[in-house]
Amino acid sequence: MSVRVVVADDQEIVRTGLTMILDAQPGIEVVGAAGDGLRAVELAERLRPDVCLLDIRMPVLDGIEATRRLAGPTAADPLAVVVITTFDLDEYVYAALRAGARGFLLKDAGPALLSQAVHAAAEGDALIAPSVTARLLTAFATGGPAAPPAQPVEPLTDREEQVLVTVASGRTNSEIADELFITLSTVKTHVASLMAKLGARNRVEIAMWAYETNRVRRR
């Protein structure tokens, strides 16, 4: 079955372009499009798509609040949200992460990366463009609090340390499995364990912890 997607962007030409690109990809079907965040939430709640692709800057209800309503901790039946942005304001993207967004792309991402992000989100995985991860972590490092990083509730295993570094590099679960020669289900188990041990709510928070503790060098 095709991955069903709702697209939301306040610029009609961008919204139309994203819809055309996604509909042209195998295994993806755009089932709804909205020009503002409130309409996106209404569509998503009614259509229950597999993935919501949301711009951050939208009228009526911005992408951050729309993400929170669809994917946040108070959502009764959370949906997968991928944020796509020009990345003009780093703090907006960080707020979207906190709101529960799963994937993150720049608007100049090509069709292949866009398709990968949608499929990954639908499968419960996440795709974060490496350039987005680097930019976000840089913004976090320069503007975030100077508090020492939290210690894991239990020590990380050697394999978890390896998975941690690959997650911080923006790899998907499938890429991690190939790189470390382990199964996809094993990767998912390690990522879930990392989130539990680090108190992280998403993969970018895992990446932030890796950078804070110097597991990975800042670009």
TrEMBL record:
Q: Which residues form the HTH luxR-type domain?
A: 149-214
- Supply the alphabetized keyword list: DNA-binding, Phosphoprotein, Transcription, Transcription regulation
Q: Entry's SMART domains?
A: HTH_LUXR, REC
Q: Give GO terms for biological process.
A: phosphorelay signal transduction system; regulation of DNA-templated transcription
Q: Which GO terms describe its molecular function?
A: DNA binding
Q: Which residues carry this modification: 4-aspartylphosphate?
A: D55
Tell me the domain of life: Bacteria
Q: Where is the Response regulatory domain?
A: 4-122
For this entry, the protein name equals LuxR family two component transcriptional regulator
Native source organism of the sequence:
Umezawaea tangerina
